Amino acid sequence: MNYGLRNVLPISLVALLGLSTSFLSLFVGYRLVLLFISLAFVLFVVAKISTHRVLFVTTSLMPIVYMPLEFTNGQYYSFTYVLLILSFVLAYKYRTYVAKSDAFEKVAIAISIYIFIRILIIGVFIEGNSFASSFSLLSSDLAKIISGVIFYRLSKSDQLKPDIIRGLFTAFLVLIGFQVYQTYVGVYRLIDIGYIAPQFNYNTALGDMRAFSTFLTPVAFGTYLAMIISFLMWSYAEKPMIRFFKWIFIGIGIIALIFTETRGAWIAFFLSTLIILMISRVISWTRLMIFSILFIPIITISVMLFPEVFVRYADRLSTITDLTYSSNSIRLQLWTGAMEAISRNWLIGYGQSDFALAVSSYIPQNLSTFTHPHETYLEFLFKYGIVGFLLYISLFIITVYKLLKTIRELPIDKRKLSIVASALGASLIFIFSSFTESFWGSYNLYITLFLIIGFGTQQNKKEGNCMPHMDKEYNVPLVRCTEDADQSVKVRWAD
Question: I want to staple 325 with a disulfide (CB 3.0 to 4.6 A). Which of 134, 312, 319, 463 is the partner?
Answer without folding.
Answer: 319
